[in-house]
Amino acid sequence: MIKNTPHTFHIPVMGLAFSIDSPMKVAQYGISSVVSLSDDTLLEQMREHYSHVYQEHFTPITPKDADYRARRVEEYLNLADRIVKQQVEALKQESFDSESRLTKYFLLLPDNAPLKTLYRKMLQTNNPELKKIMQDELRQAVVPGSIDVNIMTKLDKTNYDKDGNPLPSEYSDALAALRGFANSTVHASVIFSAGMNMRLYSYLEQFPCFFPDEDGYLQKQVVIKVSDYRSAFVQGKILAKKGIWVSEFRIESGLNCGGHAFATDGYLIGPILEEFKQNRQVMQDELYTLFSNALTAKGNPVPEKAPTTHITMQGGIGTSEEHNFLLEHYGMDAAGWGTPFLLVPEATTVDAETMEKLARAKKEDLYLSPISPLGVPFNSLRGTSSEALTLARIEKGKPGSPCEKKHLVSNSDFTKEPICTASRKYQRNKLVQLQGLGLPEAEYKAQEAKVLEKECLCEGLANTALVKLGIARKAVASRPIAICPGPNLAYFSNIFKLQEMVDHIYGRVNVLNSTYRPHVFVNELNMYVQYWKNKKAELQETMTDKQEKYLQSFWQNLQQGIAYYKELVPTLFKDQLEKRVLMLDELLEAEDQLQLANQKV
Hints:
Among the domains are: 1-166, no CATH class; 385-459, no CATH class; 518-601, no CATH class. It has helices at 22-26, 40-53, 68-93, 101-108, 114-124, 128-141, 173-183, 198-203, 229-240, 269-298, 320-328, 352-360, 385-395, 424-435, 441-452, 457-460, 463-468, 498-505, 520-539, 545-572, 577-599; strands spanning 9-10, 33-36, 147-152, 189-193, 221-226, 246-252, 310-314, 334-336, 366-369, 378-381. The strands form two sheets. Strands 1-8-7-6-5-4-3-2 form an eight-stranded parallel β-sheet. A two-stranded antiparallel ribbon has the order 9-10. α20 (545-572) packs antiparallel against α21 (577-599). 46% of the residues lie in helices and 8% in strands.
């Protein structure tokens, strides 16, 4: 995000639809959020909807139009930009009465923000002339949150013309999305997630908006979502050598997050944050040297000093104490709060039925599932309509989905052009192949289950917006919905107002339910212990030397993480002896589980 707001949190990308229109909801209050660019069809449907809401003329962009994917991205972002600017200008004109959005803007701010202090002084001022001066100053200080975007680098399929010929690389999914963002009017950040895509990174160089101007200003910024320091440094160097500055490294917990879970090799979030804290300046200095050299070679302006690099963290944060500790102890510039905002209709888009399921969800309803066609563990909610439809198709003897959008195509075992492993075409071919192998019944059933468990996420993660906003052209019953909350949802059991959730983040209220909730570091540790035990059990019968070394290295990393947390506990809970003792007990329990599991043959 372009850090121009006084808020210390942002709303990360969630699914395809859950944060698709969050900027039109929360940017006017200075809150930054992230829009997924994966589904251009959904973006076009949302553009049509919001064009009508805001009485703008709508001209459809169809697949028959040249460069339609990039243009859909560009036009949706332009619309969002216009809407947010209109909202902010209208907000500034409002009075400071108790029900106005202008008042809400300042009430939402963290209590220690200078603007909040000025707002309070204004309220206490009795001099009418001075009060008006202060109110004008406050109005001028209102800035919108950033309309940031997410490109999942792995979703970069090649596209084809009407004759079946592959289009040039710049028309691939990810590059077209980047082009749409680059050509849009928003001054914001693109967040790259899910690893490196060298073709995409090189494509950044085609757009002047990603390079600093004469004043050092970056119209468009690059953010990298990372799992550890090494990954951040490697990707930062790759981009710096191209003259591209990484304006933020967004550290995400490998397992304690929503959506796809990219587990580390046992590296825990606490030690990862510590490494960033200790090496932050060294990394910035080296990246600036590479960045300056690259800009000089290109003949571009070189900033006199390194641009700011923000470091933020997201994944499983649940209390103001955790939030503040990240900022104060590790020097994080902000923190991402995702899953709790799925329960805030003023911030995200979730249909009523799914919202109720989320609000009722218990710990056992949330699980790390195998349903993603990408083959990456995926945080899911049990009992969704997408799950029900998948099972119904299996029962009818017609497993798999029609696969209309094709965003997750990756397998070419049976076809020249890649197809999705959740598709009807792939599953039919795969089951025929399995049946011809003559496998024992138990082994066949196990392999069959792995094929049939995949769900169509292109539809499932997009449909909630169509249902909620009434723009589904099919019957609601035929619109399966999947949702991908993080495990942290188990501790939030209501539908909240925006004010309530923001007040919770800043410690003004507590909206957690009565379920006992370990510290975010312990929650993640327990997930990794279970993940390691599951991996060990899965590989037990056929373990190779390489796999054994991997498991042992994973185990050692977890042990080192536990040792780090033991030393951190007194700092974490300075004047809270009971919490210190409790967390130490939880660390010892995790340690015992690891020791016991490591002894079993």
